[in-house]
């Protein structure tokens, strides 16, 4: 194989591309990874949206702001009070940058250790699996791969008449770099990103308003669970307005004027910063030459089959570029599965058991089907739920908000879904993922010994409640 030929070339070094490239190299494939992202210092910053401007920096800010909020509001019951509490936003942002840098730098080391040919630059796919490489600091050249994996991820959606400048009108990139607590913070879209970033600035003192077009809060989970979460967010001071469709935003004199319609009437609001969080779209711009042979769907995603094969031979696509949840762990699993398929192994990804998490407080985590979906599909089901307020651990922590809800098949008892609103939901949703992946039943969860006292006992009790035999509540 010549210098410019590879077994596999990954274009895009986010959680999909980098995890896939590492797995391919582990399997002995000659692997190239091309990623264009650079840090503030001009150094390569692989890790994609997730590490640079997504999952990780948002969680860093969520954690900082959560500590601040807890000290301010939740610790007096524990006998803890603090005089003169303050937060230094520069230090908070610097900590976030350090976390990101540590992770992106760590990846570069991993690429070296795995002998991956890593190029910091852009890749573009042409016919016959040829990739034009434009390094950030060099001249263009062409490489060829036996296989190509497209992993270019996604970019924020925009809406008409709302122009992101990342000064006053922000997307996720700008929202992670706000240097002062805005007095009034507006958010368009009460989805995952809107709720997380809205929580950060609300906790730090911004009067925060979320304008959401649809009438139902978080339609992706059951109404009882969504109501529970919405009630808690309201208590925290988040002003979430449903049925409000934003039609325009105008920045002038350091303020943003937002126009929206609700029930057919025009309304306006003025904010100090506005976040546009209305979803994301696949980053296919400048990725495919006209002769690449790769087809897109009507929604602009790259068309793939269940194994991430595109319409072109030996070209694969993964992560946010393709159907399925736009989540980092889904992208990584697809990258790994594709690498294994290329190496001739049997690989499998089960999109039905991908867990979702919103890292608000309480956290919201779920997987599988909701009651609405089960009704639509005519599947008979039973449910069991259990509140954290009835767990010893939740009360001892002083953080007993929320509940676990489990859905199981009415006849076979097979687990069909789970939703958790509550503390650390992101961590112990994992046990339900495992149970569902093994086609487990609610009876299985009910018979597993859970450590006491833990929050995960709420999962145990919810499973018992499916059969109306929870111990610590009236069934
Ligand atoms: P990406 O991470 O987008 O990576 C693709 C990379 O390819 C990018 O670095 C891009 O610059 C590069 N690239 C694009 N085109 C080219 C090209 N032609 N040549 C070279 N390089 C190219 N998901 C979660 O699971 N958990 C979370 O908590 C979470 N929080 C989020 C918070 C925010 C604010 C945002 C915006 C997203 C969040 N997500 C979260 C979603 C998650 O970031 C994405 O699902 C995930 O990053 C997708 O991975 P990917 O590998 O498909 O693409
Ligand atoms: P998510 O898909 O989780 O990122 O959430 C994006 C949210 O933005 C969805 O709930 C959409 O309904 C909402 N949205 C999209 N366009 C608008 C708009 N013009 N005004 C208000 N909300 C919107």
How does this structure look, described?
The model has no long low-confidence stretch (mean pLDDT 97). The protein has three domains: 223 residues, FAD/NAD(P)-binding domain (3-Layer(bba) Sandwich), CATH 3.50.50; 110 residues, FAD/NAD(P)-binding domain; 104 residues, 2-Layer Sandwich (Enolase-like, domain 1). Helix 1 packs parallel to helix 8 and helix 3 runs antiparallel to helix 4. It is built from 13 helices and 21 strands. The strands form five sheets. A five-stranded mixed barrel has the order 1-2-3-4-5. A five-stranded parallel sheet has the order 7-14-8-9-10. A five-stranded antiparallel sheet has the order 17-18-21-20-19, with helices on both faces. It is of the alpha/beta class and 475 residues long. The structure holds flavin-adenine dinucleotide (FAD) and adenosine monophosphate. The site of adenosine monophosphate has 16 residues, from helix 6 and strand 11.
């Amino acid at each position: 194989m010549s210098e410019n030929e590879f077994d596999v070339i990954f274009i895009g070094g986010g959680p999909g591309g980098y995890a896939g490239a590492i797995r391919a190299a582990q399997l002995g494939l000659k692997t190239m990874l091309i990623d264009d992202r650079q840090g503030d210092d001009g150094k390569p910053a692989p890790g994609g949206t997730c590490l640079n401007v997504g999952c990780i920096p948002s969680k860093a800010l969520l954690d900082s702001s959560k500590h601040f909020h807890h000290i301010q509001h939740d610790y007096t019951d524990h006998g803890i009070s603090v005089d003169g509490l303050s937060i230094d936003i520069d230090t908070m942002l610097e900590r976030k940058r350090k976390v990101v840098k540590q992770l992106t730098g760590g990846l570069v080391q991993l690429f070296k250790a795995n002998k991956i040919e890593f190029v910091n630059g852009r890749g573009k796919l042409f016919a016959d699996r040829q990739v034009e490489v434009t390094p950030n600091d060099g001249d263009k050249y062409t490489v060829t791969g036996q296989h190509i994996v497209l992993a270019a991820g996604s970019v924020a959606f925009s809406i008409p008449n709302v122009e992101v400048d990342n000064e006053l009108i922000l997307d996720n990139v700008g929202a992670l770099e706000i240097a002062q607590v805005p007095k009034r913070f507006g958010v368009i879209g009460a989805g995952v990103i809107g709720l997380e970033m809205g929580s950060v600035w609300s906790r730090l003192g911004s009067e925060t308003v979320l304008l959401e077009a649809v009438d139902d809060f978080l339609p992706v989970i059951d109404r009882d669970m969504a109501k529970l979460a919405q009630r808690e967010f309201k208590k925290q001071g988040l002003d979430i307005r449903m049925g409000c469709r934003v039609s325009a935003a105008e920045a002038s004199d350091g303020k943003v004027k937002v126009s929206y319609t609700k029930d057919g009437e025009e309304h306006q609001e003025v904010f100090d910063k506005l976040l546009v969080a209305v979803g994301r779209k696949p980053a296919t711009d400048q990725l495919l030459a006209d002769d690449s042979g790769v087809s897109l769907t009507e929604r602009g995603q790259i068309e793939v089959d269940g194994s991430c094969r595109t319409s072109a031979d030996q070209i694969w696509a993964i992560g946010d570029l393709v159907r399925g949840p736009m989540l980092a762990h889904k992208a990584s699993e697809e990258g790994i599965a594709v690498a294994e398929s290329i190496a001739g192994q049997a690989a499998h990804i089960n999109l039905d058991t991908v867990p979702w998490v919103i890292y608000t407080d309480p956290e919201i985590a779920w997987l599988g089907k909701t009651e609405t979906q089960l009704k639509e599909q005519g599947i008979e089901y039973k449910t069991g739920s259990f509140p954290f307020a009835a767990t010893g651990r939740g009360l001892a922590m002083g953080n007993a908000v929320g509940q676990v809800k489990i859905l199981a098949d009415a006849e076979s008892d097979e687990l069909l879904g789970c939703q958790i609103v509550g503390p650390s939901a992101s961590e112990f949703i994992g046990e339900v993922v495992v149970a569902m992946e093994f086609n487990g039943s609610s009876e299985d969860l009910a018979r597993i010994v859970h450590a006491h006292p833990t929050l995960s006992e709420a999962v145990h009790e919810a499973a018992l409640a499916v059969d109306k035999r929870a111990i610590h509540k009236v069934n």
